[in-house]
Write a sequence for this structure.
């Protein structure tokens, strides 16, 4: 069985926890887009793990974990993540990196910062990890692929051109910054090559053999639908396609092989960085949820913006990704709220819109339309089955399922592995 897992809002929905749950029965977990802008948290008996590049299935030794061709890999970060895992007694023998995956090069985070600074008040609020510049170079066909590390002569020639003739002139002439010495970069990257060599593979036959054998394969989405380069709030998006289509191009799996797409949503909404957020809470309720939910970015530590659940956004995610079953996470964070609101549409100059707008400047003239529901005001952290949940909590979940058009079968009631309520047919059986 092949399952694609996607984020349904603006990221940090709790994908890591759902992936950890599914990976227990998966033979393969594949990351297919994004890079170390992602931060996926998994909490086990051994403590908390925050995965940025390494697939969140790595804690299961029997599960093959693949960093797919669509990911942009910063080798420095990957090596750091590997050594952190080893320090915690986890030997990532089951990890592979596609030789087709592009690299975030030493200069990409610098360009990310310089470009953000140049935008001034219009900055996007990126993670400064060099993700946008790395994808831009991939598309300009001046990117370096992980497999290039295994070809020193090729690396030498290409660094001389890309760094010497493309990057350095821009750095020195446009940004008044220092040039890179591409020869010392060659030495540096050859060092990474040696350390990463055991993990670099042509993952095509490995993934295809797994498909042919009927293995359970999970495609681990990073970021989310509203950060999608095409369907998100452009330009306040990431530079990849976190929607279901991106999972296919980023792994080399055909659409006909996919059995199910699971959408992961947070019981409210959050966003890091700038850009439209129609249901944003700028009052004390937003502060309460942020504090109770420790809503500070996994990657950058920035406070996350908080808002009410927006079913116009979530239904859009369900339709774009073909979500068949949904996860609703972090419900426990709403335990103390006496009144809950769900944004169902936007009133744009007297006209109701039930899906996100393509023209983001229209959001300035939009009023969100809310439905109100009473809160359950009871702790749900110990609920283990549907019947354990307070009836008002069940009503909230069912109403969201109705509004978004997908059954909510996975329910997060706390950060721990066991704080999970599931219903409906078993997954990966
Ligand atoms: P991801 O990027 O979608 O994987 O999400 P993050 O890991 O960035 O952020 C989600 C946070 O919520 C992490 O700290 C998780 O440990 C935590 N989390 C996941 N599910 C739940 C839940 O149901 N309740 C609570 N309280 N925390 C959760
Ligand atoms: P996970 O996988 C939340 C946001 C950044 C910024 C925008 C562009 O943990 O859900 P980028 O560095 O990608 O060019 O930044 O996208 N962003 C995320 N927000 N969760 C993420 O990943 C994100 N990855 C990128 O904050 O607004
Ligand atoms: Mg995250």
């Amino acid at each position: 069985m092949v399952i694609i897992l996607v984020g349904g809002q603006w990221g940090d929905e709790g994908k890591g926890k759902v992936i950890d749950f599914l990976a227990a029965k998966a033979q393969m977990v594949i990351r297919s887009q994004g890079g170390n802008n992602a931060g996926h948290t998994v909490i086990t008996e051994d403590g908390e793990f925050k995965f940025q590049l390494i697939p969140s299935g790595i804690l299961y030794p029997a599960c093959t974990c693949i960093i797919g061709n669509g990911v942009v890999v910063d080798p420095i970060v990957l090596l750091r993540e590997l050594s952190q895992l080893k320090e915690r007694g986890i030997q990532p023998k089951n990890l592979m990196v596609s030789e087709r995956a592009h690299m975030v090069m030493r200069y990409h985070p610098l360009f990310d910062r310089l470009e953000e600074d140049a935008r001034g008040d219009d900055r996007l609020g990126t993670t400064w990890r060099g993700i946008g510049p790395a994808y831009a170079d991939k598309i300009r066909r001046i990117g370096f692929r992980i497999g290039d590390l295994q070809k020193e002569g090729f690396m030498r020639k290409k660094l001389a051109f890309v760094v010497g003739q493309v990057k350095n002139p821009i750095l020195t002439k446009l940004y008044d910054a220092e040039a890179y010495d591409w020869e010392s970069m060659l030495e540096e990257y050859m060092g990474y090559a040696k350390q990463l060599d055991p993990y670099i593979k042509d993952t095509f036959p490995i993934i295809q053999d797994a498909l042919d054998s009927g293995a359970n394969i999970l495609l681990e989405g990073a970021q989310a639908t509203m950060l999608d380069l095409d369907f998100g709030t452009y330009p306040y998006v990431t530079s990849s396609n976190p929607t279901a289509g991106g999972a296919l191009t980023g792994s080399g799996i055909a659409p006909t092989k996919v059995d199910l797409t699971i959408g992961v949503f947070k019981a409210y909404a959050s966003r890091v960085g700038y850009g439209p957020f129609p249901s944003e809470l700028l009052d004390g309720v937003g502060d309460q949820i942020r504090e109770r939910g420790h809503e500070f970015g996994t990657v950058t530590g920035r406070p996350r913006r908080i808002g009410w659940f927006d079913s116009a956004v979530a239904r859009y995610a369900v339709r774009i990704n073909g979500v068949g079953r949904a996860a609703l996470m972090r419900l426990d964070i709403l335990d103390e709220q006496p009144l809950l609101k769900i944004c169902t549409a936007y009133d744009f100059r007297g006209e109701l819109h039930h899906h996100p707008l393509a023209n983001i400047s229209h959001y300035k003239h939009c009023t969100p339309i809310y439905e109100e529901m009473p809160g359950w005001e009871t702790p749900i952290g110990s609920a283990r089955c549907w019947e354990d949940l307070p009836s008002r909590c069940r009503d909230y979940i069912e109403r969201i399922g109705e509004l978004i058009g997908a059954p909510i079968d996975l329910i997060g009631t706390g950060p721990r592995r066991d704080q999970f309520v599931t219903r409906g047919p078993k997954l990966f059986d």
Q: What stands out?
A: The longest helix spans residues 152-174. The pocket of 6-O-phosphoryl inosine monophosphate (ligand 2) is lined by residues 7, 11-12, 37-40, 124-127, 129, 131-132, 222-224, 227, 238-239, 272-273, 298 (CB under 6 Å). The chain has a mean pLDDT of 97.
